[in-house]
Amino acid sequence: MFVPNLEYFGNKSILENYKIGFLCSQKVPANIILKTYDWAIKQRTSGNCVISGFHSKIEKDVFDILVKGTQPMIIVLARGIYKRAPAELKREIDKDRLLIISPFSASVKRISSKTSFKRNRIILKLSDEIYLPYVNPQGNLHKLIRKFDTTIKSSKDS
């Protein structure tokens, strides 16, 4: 599923996979963290393609779990595409298992709540299924997901 007006870096054919979107509020209750790590290990073991911003602490932890596998992954940035990808990401791009996407021009270098909201909207649009281990009822993520008719799986379902 190629989407126009996005910048792509990496293997675009990854978009053809069934994609599980992973989004999570920034502050996560302790009891959710281990469940989320278990979910990530299951995705890695099953070879499932996960799409996320991998920006918050828990999202970065999930990325660290997933990167130890061989399954495809998609990162959607809340800023412009990298001029030079970090070495860890470049290694995965070179293995054809990573795609980095950005809805922003290269001039957008700072992440804000506005760019994060747009990034999360792209993740929801591109995902076939969504996994949300925790959503703060007063947060921006809660406001965003209420607008989407998507299969949403909470940590209680895993």
Total number of helical segments? 5
Major sheet description? 7 strands, mixed
Class per helix and strand makeup: alpha/beta
**Any idea of the CATH topology?**
Rossmann fold
Radius of gyration: 14 Å
Average pLDDT, all residues: 89
Shape: globular
Q: What's the end-to-end separation, in Å?
A: 27 Å
Strand content: 15-25%
Low-confidence stretches: none
Number of strands: 7
CATH class category name:
Alpha Beta
Specify the helix fraction band.
25-40%
CATH architecture: 3-Layer(aba) Sandwich
Return the string of H and E elements. Answer: EEHEHEHEHEHE
The count of domains is 1
Strand order, biggest sheet? 1-5-4-3-2-6-7
Structure description:
The longest helix has 17 residues, at 30-46. The chain is an alpha/beta fold. 34% of the residues are buried. Strands 1-5-4-3-2-6-7 form a seven-stranded mixed β-sheet. It has helices at residues 30-46, 57-66, 87-94, 113-126, 140-145, and strands at residues 7-10, 19-22, 49-52, 73-76, 98-102, 129-132, 152-154. It is built from five helices and seven strands; from the N terminus they run ββαβαβαβαβαβ. Helix 1 links the parallel strand 2 and strand 3 (49-52). It has a single domain (7-157), classed as Rossmann fold, CATH 3.40.50. The chain starts with 6 loop residues before the first strand and ends with a strand.
